[in-house]
Amino acid sequence: MRRRNLQVLCGHGGFSRLSYAEWGEADNPRVLICVHGLTRNGRDFDYLAEELAPHYRVLCPDLPGRGASDWLMVKADYVIPTYIQAMAALVARSGADKVDWVGTSLGGLIGMTLAATPGHPISRMVLNDVGPFLPKAALERIGSFVGSDPTFATLAEGEAFLHVALVSFGITEPAHWAHVVETSIRPAADGNGFKLHYDPGIAQAFNDPSAVRDVDLWPLWDLITVPTLLLRGAESDLLPVDVAAQMTQRGPKADLIEFPACGHAPALFEPQQITAIKDWLVG
Length: 283
Known about the structure:
By secondary structure, this protein is of the alpha/beta class.
């Protein structure tokens, strides 16, 4: 795994550093881009990227405000159009005319938006527990977590917090939890304790609870034509069963795989989850 950086134009605040992990041969023309969820970072794909590195050059960015990427000066810029700008720059940096895409939650929404845009670069797309209808109740639950900005006196306190906040990911292996803790918590800037590894400003969209409502993106979904694999956590509240079923009948008519014992969103750490993606992408 190699860590690389790219200067990208992000909203109204000028250019900022986008950091990404690169796996596989640097000259492999076959490129896979893996984009994480709202509060996560590109290290969520370490296990998947390692497995797919013999087949792809795998790029796993930290979206602006997350992980090793810069925080944005204008917090209102933490929106889909900004992320589209950043990902378009990453695709251009890759040198590939076409890329395959794996997107978890927010990363899936970015992929859907790109795939519905004329002239887009996506050949095949994997959506991890997200679709064109987002229920208000699930968004409120996510907002209640994103809106907090805790400080932990010790790493053990941070780990306990993550075990609660990420319980729906279905993580069971101690080594996987250790990886999540290592990549999700950083020393506080003032040297006192530890913080989550993202800008709390990403919560601005959730600051007004009255503005949180059901999100209907079905017209966007119906524009997508690329082969699509839909992954769903069996207990997901963000991707209801009926929405997933409709996604197999409309738009790209996605293939659907459901994973037991997890909700929103499957961590993609387990061998059966990784194998499902690999078999669909690589064969």
